[in-house]
Fold:
Amino acid sequence: MNIGIFDSGIGGITLLHQALLTLPKENYLFYADVDHVPYGTKTRQQVIEYVDEVIGFMVEHDCKAVVIACNTATSAAAALMREKYQIPIIGIEPAVKPAVEQHSGKRVMVVATPLTVREEKLKNLVARVDSEHLVDLLALPRLVGFAEAGEFDTPEVEQYLREELAPFDLENYSELVLGCTHFNYFKDSFAKIFKNRIRMIDGSEGTVNQLKRVLEQNNQLEDNEGSVQYFESGREIVSAEGLERIAKLHRRLDEMKKL
Ligand code: DGL
Structure:
């Protein structure tokens, strides 16, 4: 059977990348909902409808578990989808807890999409773990568009980030939580602007560990050759050009992982 991993777009490849390291002998179905990207600037109800359609597709395509590799979709729709579907649904969330635990006396910045920042799920998480009031939230919606356009370390990206971060005294921060999977592609720009004084953390590793635990508990780990099928809103990517575009994203994530 397959493990379904999805996002609104290429951000979810960051989670697939981690899953391939931790569980290489599984068959994956990766789904980027490019017809509806971005999710982060839509309403909660719209995102629920998109996510429902994707999970329905995954159930039809022999998935034994689904990973929501999108913080926005998790915050808007995960609880409802768990009520509707029988298969395990694991959702990525901003890694606020580990960031607060390792904050070394300084502040923690959480960057995410506008919908994630607005939703109760993140507010509740921060209220639960941030007893010292160290966390600041910032929405960075334009990074999703930059990523989808394949624009990563350009002067426009740097200028956008500098403008959005201008109101904050960056020296006060030791942790940066990447609360949107698309943001992992910009670790070099964040590192430059924060002058390498921050640790960047995202929820991919924790989510994949949770996936592994669930499959172990259900006795569903497999020992295959390992494969990935890529879909864009239900259409399989089969062209050499399309697959090379994805291979390039994996190579960029390899580079970003070193930061
Ligand atoms: N990658 C998604 C996340 O982790 C959201 C991107 C979007 O706005 O579609 O939140």
The chain has two domains: 2-92+204-256, 96-202.
